[in-house]
Amino acid sequence: MQSRPPPPTHARLSAFLSTFLPPTPNDLPFLYHTPRHPSYHPSHAPIHHLLLALHPSPSTTHLLSSPHTAAFLHRPFGLPRRAIHRGNLVLASHTSFDAALTVGYNVHLASRLGLDVARSRCVQGYKGDPERRIGIVGRLARVGERAEGLCRRIGQEFEGEGEVFLPSAARRAGPGGGAEEGDGAEIGRRWRMERGAGAGEGEGVDEDHGQGDDSSEVRVLAIMNAFHAEEVERVIAIAVEEGWMTPAARGSEILYLTGAARPYGLEAVAAWGMPAMCVGHVACERWGIRFLAERVREEFPGLDVQEIYEEEEEVVGQGRRGLVERKANGEERSNDKVVKRPQETGA
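^ that's the sequence the OP posted. Answer follows.
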């Protein structure tokens, strides 16, 4: 009979998760809450139960009151530290998680979607910070794929979440390429994924019944966590410079993948004749939690790993900065609680 592998310690788990979350300026302390008693040593403290969540919730608070439990939180603000068992650990990452494990310079997502990461380009520099990475642009390995087919593959990664924006064929020339002034801001077709449709089980819901152009092969994918005209133009410039697209096609051979659907961003991609997919802010964050859970289960097969998704609740009261939380934005679907364990997900 095969023996159960030993549980990871605080030190081993922290070291493993930190490989996916490189240090970034002004981020939260990664070791957000550690035991304070004198006998504590991270290399001798075992973990039997790991929680991964976007923010504190009634479930995380309850479970952290049990011994040998650790948690990873993306937004730990308002964490009731007094309710945590004295030997437990809480890890946190805000800016690094957003940069590396949502949409943006996410090499793990890029690899899953078929980009050659080693030959891809990093989009770097944003809001006065020349070092800030905001995206990755690269050539797709799959040949002959159309925008809708690629969006359905992307939908599998985001549990069927997302809206797809296809430009009209008349806008494919791009700014300065022959379209009349003002024509470039028109979206040809807009449709949203049905939850569960990403795996090919269903169809998207057409929201405006427009005539979108899906005739061009998508050769280039841009995964970005900013969505303005400037970023769209930077993506175009990279693709042209690398020779990844034909000059006549301009934006029609690029799919722009991002989080929230911003009106000014949609105007920019439409002006270039570029298809876009916006999966929503919360769906991006949940991708990161699922990814970390998968990696931890592979690395520590004997560890009980639990993903917790609960609606973010507003905390009423005054206090220090960061103690007030708001409910999830309108992109979040309404659900009281979703708790996943490995046996429930097939992991």
